[in-house]
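To close the chapter, one final illustration. This time we ask the reader to focus less on the individual chains and more on the assembly as a whole: which components sit near each other, and how the overall shape emerges from the parts.
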Amino acid sequence: MSVLVNKNSKVIVQGFTGGEGTFHATQMIEYGTQVVGGVTPGKGGTTHLDKPVFNTVADAVTQTGANVSIIFVPPAFAADAIMEAAEAGIKVIVCITEGIPTQDMITAKKYLNGKDCRLIGPNCPGIITPEEAKVGIMPGFVFKKGNIGIVSKSGTLTYEAADQIVKQGMGISTAIGIGGDPVIGTTTKEAVQMLMEDPETEGIVMIGEIGGTMEADAARWIKAHGTKPVVGFIAGQTAPPGRRMGHAGAIVGGDEDTAAAKMKIMAECGINVVESPANIGVMMTKALATISG
Amino acid sequence: MNIHEYQAKSILKQYGVAIQEGIVADTADGSVAAAKQLQAETGTSWVVVKAQIHAGGRGKGKIEGTEQRGVALAKTLDDVKTISTNLLGGTLVTIQTGPAGKKVNKVLVAQDVYYPGASATKEFYMSILLDRQTSQNVIVYSTEGGMDIEEVAHSTPHLIHKEQINPSVGLQGFQARKIAFGLGLSGQAHKEMVKFVTSLYTAYVKIDAAMFEINPVLKTSDDKIIAVDAKVNLDENALYRHANLAAFRDIAEEDPTEVEAAEHNLNYVKLDGNVGCMVNGAGLAMATMDIIKLSGGDPANFLDVGGTANATTVEAGFRIILKDPNVKAILINIFGGIVRCDRVAQGVVDAYTNMGNITVPIIVRLQGTNAVEAKKLIDDSGLKVFSAITLEEAANLVKSSLS
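The assembled structure is written out below.
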């Protein structure tokens, strides 16, 4: 078991023949991900990286049985690509694209409402289930197989957490990069919930950032329903109010979305909060020892 | 992207939102001419002179070293000239600018809209923004206009109302009426408010705004509803489809170092601390700032070099960080994935050698692909550069470099 993607996932790449799409599709194929083809409008019928190219996602689904899509199309066309994937029956849509206009994402998210699919991202590193499938842009070698799930808004900080977990002698069940934008498909709470329900996952690392209330919402859910130890970190303890810190969503607006406020709520909800990002791995070892001891 | 009040009002007017009319000027004589033109066009007798800076709190703020407020009523053309002379070229310090203040390069000469009439004037608050919990736009409104809305939210939260807008259909008539009733309006003023909020929401969506704040929205003594101030923030990701709005960018309002960083595709935010940092990824960059703080330092900046950390970007990063005289050490933290650590290390060594005059200690933490080779490259370089592989080691090196 694992969540969202595994060795049976049939993946298509939207924006397959572009620079980013080509590079990362190559990496995903090398990792062992079952990439069954790609979509680039106007290039249907050709092949790329020895895989078929289709004009539409619907064609790709009909002819390959694809159930997962990863999107690398430019920001101006990305929301459209998300809706096309949903309409074609793709179950897990991973959108890597950074810089999509907010109004476009509001429309796309509304469009997905009620459809049987899950969007991860946009502006995210993707999902990896080690030794099974990498549907993202993360360096695969960092993620060794194991029983710790990771949920994170940030790319490199996810790699950092995974590396620390592995150095502690543990491994990763599935790591989900949910993205750093103000409008995203899957919230921290939803991702944590999936990992809680996954029998293979024994502990969860939850990494957030300043801005918004997603971590607090997740913490309250964990307090009410959590069955596994959770280690939490919030980046941006030193970020000044009103300044956007790289990610479109990372901005302190009020008292509630500072790192300190979020960490306090998380600790009150029973999450093992680390002040220093250097202690994520060590804290997970401790948290698991407490459970079994 | 923030824009000026006069620019914001020009957009609103274009979408049929009633505004306090005004004319922008950048000299005192220009202000007097603007006032005369405004008197002729609108019949206003008095005018209001408003400093144009990208910050709020102008009415209470003062020009540095004087008693001149950032927004002032002028009853005569002489007043217009005096106030404009005081404002233009001065540094306006408000609660939002911080102690450094902002230089005033333009003033908006605007009509006096608080004229006496059949009914009392009334100020309201209105803003439009994204509600992140619902992933929808929300209109926030209150009867408590013209004052600090954060204070209202704190002391009388029941006076702040929110109306969620379904993105599939947009603002509906019943919602606009609900807002107008909620603000206690009836008769002609109610009709005007329905029209006001409807056009305001249309403008918000059409221009891809990220935030509208109209404070105050004024009901005049003759029952018109107008925007007296307008703060507009545009979604930078959508500017590609609004070339006319992109031209509203005012570089003079931005930190020159941040502008320079952006030209090198570096995402830089200046802070007040003593340890500079250079990191790949926004989340890891914030986490690195936190590490600096926990090690006894204070971050001097946020700097995300993105997915391409090479000699050119590292050198540009060094130059930008070292402009800040407070920087006592620099921590470079790169998690190499697709980017190979040895290449980054070579970039650091090359940049360091090229610059030749770096006097502060550099701590380089490289983790991921080829981290061991990278550490060796740095250690063998003979430069005053300290290498680390784990975050913990990096934190300790920061600590010892400050002591």
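Residues 19-31 of chain A form the longest helix (13 residues). Chain A has a mean pLDDT of 95. With these observations in hand, you are ready for the problems at the end of the chapter.
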